[in-house]
Predict the structure.
Amino acid sequence: METKERILQKSLELFNIYGSDNVTVRQIAKELNMSHGNLCYHYASTDDIVQALYMLLVADLDALILRGKKATDISLESVILMSKMSFEKLYEYRFILLDFVHIMRRIPSIKAHYRQLTVMRQLQFQFIVSELVRKGIFKQPIIENQYSHWIQSTIFFGDFWLSSAEILYQGKEQDKVKTYHNFFIHLTVPYLTEQGLREIQAFL
Amino acid sequence: METKERILQKSLELFNIYGSDNVTVRQIAKELNMSHGNLCYHYASTDDIVQALYMLLVADLDALILRGKKATDISLESVILMSKMSFEKLYEYRFILLDFVHIMRRIPSIKAHYRQLTVMRQLQFQFIVSELVRKGIFKQPIIENQYSHWIQSTIFFGDFWLSSAEILYQGKEQDKVKTYHNFFIHLTVPYLTEQGLREIQAFL
DNA sequence: TATAATTTAGAACAAATGTACTAATATTGT
DNA sequence: ACAATATTAGTACATTTGTTCTAAATTATA
């Protein structure tokens, strides 16, 4: 048990630095001062490690969303808080999002799982948005399906902000999450009512 | 000359199918019925081919933008048309965007070039947006820097819609570009004035 | 035509990597 | 304590891939 955790931890570290494609079983083993034969006894390949780490990420994100649900009242503040924590979690497992397409291509089971997950998230977001519209924080939609498009773009941003940052971001590393989360909040501005605008000022 | 073009063409084909990381010099050579020794005579490595293809993409996109500038009047229609053509061009070279982070990490010269390009694009977009605001198609900004955020998210979408589609899109392949471009147009809706909304109806 | 330059095929080599196997060691349960 | 199981180190092998080299063939040019 202990060993498996150590492997996952070190792998995450190396994947985040070099990308999951550029790390080999031998490298990980070396860093852990163990033989690669031994490492392969626990995880046959790096793909197996990637899969295990992906599952950890998903579990952590699920826990976040569950906790969000317990707070029965959906507010702008709670949504912003939850998204912030999600961003931080994604940053922790950033190699997954930086190698998103590659990983999905390599490991079909992850792709299938992720597609399922996206469907779920869309439903959850739809509920959140409808609540915020009802409470007069988000505007009534101007055209049909407007918010379903916005939800998709929200998920889209969540999936790829790290990739964009990898290429374009030039600030301090420790400000990265905050910067992009702030960016994320800005995207909601045109959808807000007067009241929503007043409320969001505190977070900009 | 002829041979180099054939290599680029076939490489683009293979890269788009398998991803630039999963294609070797030997594979490309085999598909072209030539020895890999010969291929390496023209392009020492796949990275050189990637770089050449990237330059072709950039040149094509530049040509698009230049043509757009000749039509002195910036309208919603001309902007939508230009973005549509850009989307189609990106689809043509889709491997670059599907392997975006990887390529940028592997080939620093491309990363540097792309960063430069993004700065340019931001300026161009800023001009376009200010024109559309002036013409009463886009709303006056509600809060400071609102449009600079929107411009960033536009570029962001341009860079990663193909990656998102690779994972989530389930429709017909030949409708992909149209679907995502339509998605792109939807993102502008909350920024449009009454007039802008009337004009955009034709494109939805 | 003759010479030089370019292009091509193919072989050879080294490094990296996944995979499998063996034997030794440690741990656990009875 | 002893047998069974789990864990670990290390070796060996096949494959892939980038890279380099040589010699033959083709093309260009004077």
Residues 108-134 of chain A form the longest helix (27 residues).
